[in-house]
């Protein structure tokens, strides 16, 4: 097998994934998505080489748009790159495309644990859409390296995958980017994307319903006015006047009806209780202090 001795000059692409001393760049050539491998010692920042003892992600971030030159190589190995970068420049154009990488005083908030729908997939990148708080449909660009399926990082190509398809609902965190400056006209760049929502902590008040044994108990927690849910708690998550009860017998501490404060997360379907406690403590009235 042979390849043509091709060389790319001043191409632009987007950093897809980073490991300690190398990264992969996604770019489009002749309508086809391709990948280029870049080593740390090939990077120049503001015209200067990087220090010998530096870290790649101190200078280059996943999602960053870069200019590079490269020559063609055999597409082999774990990286599946058909090009080797001879020079890469992170320049001023990135300030327009991804201002959050350079400026820490922007007032725009990111989005957290939002649900969106996948509308486009390429090999290692995609776009999803969601309804923002102001009711507008907005687009989010994401890289496969930011995707997790059942808590495991996604390592395959997105296009043709049975785990992620156009129309699939996903949950994501994202930071803003300028839509007029990227090829998909996305207003957001996903920092993480998953097929499951991350647990949301619920804080409230309630009372002990039953003590099951020395280690476990069930409480009822008020999550909204007149709406109660059952909470399973373990003694390792219980506190009495700032003392952790991980070695105590709950039957000697709590009784049915004791008022409590709780922090909990939703439990899996068909679980013994509707929530699982991450903290249980004696109820505290802001006016009177802890109550027994």
Give the CA-based shape.
elongated
How much strand? over 45%
The number of distinct β-strands equals 23
Q: What is the CATH homology-level superfamily of the largest domain?
A: Nucleic acid-binding proteins
Average pLDDT confidence is 80
What layout of secondary structure does this protein have?
Layout lengths: L6 E13 L2 E8 L2 E8 L3 E3 L2 E2 L15 E12 L4 E10 L2 H5 L13 E11 L3 E7 L5 E7 L3 E3 L2 E2 L15 E8 L11 E7 L7 E10 L4 E9 L2 E8 L3 E3 L2 E2 L14 E8 L8 E8 L1 E2 L3 E2 L2
Parallel strand pairs: 3-7, 4-7, 10-14, 11-14, 17-21, 18-21
Antiparallel strand pairs: 1-2, 1-6, 2-3, 4-5, 6-7, 8-9, 8-13, 9-10, 11-12, 13-14, 15-16, 15-20, 16-17, 18-19, 20-21, 22-23
Describe the 3D structure.
By secondary structure, the chain is mostly beta strands. It has three domains: 99 residues, Nucleic acid-binding proteins (OB fold (Dihydrolipoamide Acetyltransferase, E2P), Beta Barrel); 89 residues, Nucleic acid-binding proteins (OB fold (Dihydrolipoamide Acetyltransferase, E2P)); 81 residues, Nucleic acid-binding proteins (OB fold (Dihydrolipoamide Acetyltransferase, E2P)). Helix content is 2%, strand content 52%. The chain is built from one helix and 23 strands. The strands form four sheets. Strands 1-2-3-7-6 form a five-stranded mixed β-barrel. A hairpin with a 2-residue loop joins β11 and β12. The N and C termini lie far apart (79 Å). 26% of the residues are buried.
